[in-house]
Design goal:
Its EC number is 3.2.1.-. Substrate binds at residues 119, 240, 267, 310, 335, 339. This protein is an alpha/beta fold. It contains ten helices and eight strands. The model is unreliable at 1-44 and 53-71 (pLDDT under 50).
Amino acid sequence: MAARPPDPDQLDLLTDCAMRALPVGALPILTANLRTHPCQKAEVPVMRRKLLALVAALSSLPLTLAAAPSAHAADPTTMTNGFYVDPDSSAKRWVAANPRDGRAQAINASIANTPTARWFGSWSGTIGTATGAYVGAADARDKLPVLVAYNIYNRDYCGGHSAGGASSPSAYANWIAQFAGGIAGRPAVVVLEPDSLGDYGCMTQAQIDERERMLTGALAEFNRQAPNTWVYLDAGNPAWASATVMARRLHEAGLRQAHGFSLNVSNYLTTAENTAYGNAVNRELSARYGYTKPFVVDTSRNGNGSNGQWCNPSGRRIGTPTQLGGGAEMLLWIKVPGESDGNCGVGAGSSAGQFLPEVAYKMIYGY
């Protein structure tokens, strides 16, 4: 069925605005400044979605200017203006509850106001409502939210500190489908199931196959329901598996469907170490499977690297704040500095995810 052309009475204005909303190189850019253009009267995120819809309509017409974009080609970083700061992070909540604490000012300035991912799991309530509310709040501010899906069946099966997750593979499939549906067409970044591909040491081949099917199914849901989301399938860290092994695991878990892969989530290895590892994984992917993928690095706690311990080590330091580029496609704060890795190290007696202000404060200064 042929696409219906846009209203001719609105075509000139909307086409002008649409050209401004596209990435450089997609279509010719007009010279007038968007700040003084009539299209600014519309709320920015709403107008942007309307403009992208117009572009989609135009691309389906029999024009020869450009080929129609693929169904999953949108770039959420160009649809937004910077990263979203979670207003309800554990660091934000602690600062709000302890404004007179001598550590509060430093924690607020150096940690709480840095864009950091929000993690979603069984604690998040109705998951589609939760993800929808979060990306909706970010979208209203024209910011890019980073979300972590952390609810796979048999989560942290071998490590145990963060054990839990969905009650069955089918329960997970339903959960992740609702997760993606809550995001829908709004721009977002999702880190998919940290540790899931490194956590194989005590698993049977049947359990590994089951996990890979869950991840492949999850990626399919995001491609189907969340076309403006970049999903990064987690690939552990350089100390966990060789690049050859990780490339195989990523491929078998459906990496070809994902935008990319994530490294160093909740770990401490340097950005240089992770960049070298990510490039090595890509060399293996290229040699064995004929493709490569961009990757992101969690820099939240890698400012002075690892001391060989992964669970609440002492003397660690915050790393480069969330940004585009920096050796990887993005450097992201995926873990909130100061949140415990579990009942271990300088977090003895704490539970995974609990905010420890003294750990956070010392991490700012690296002692």
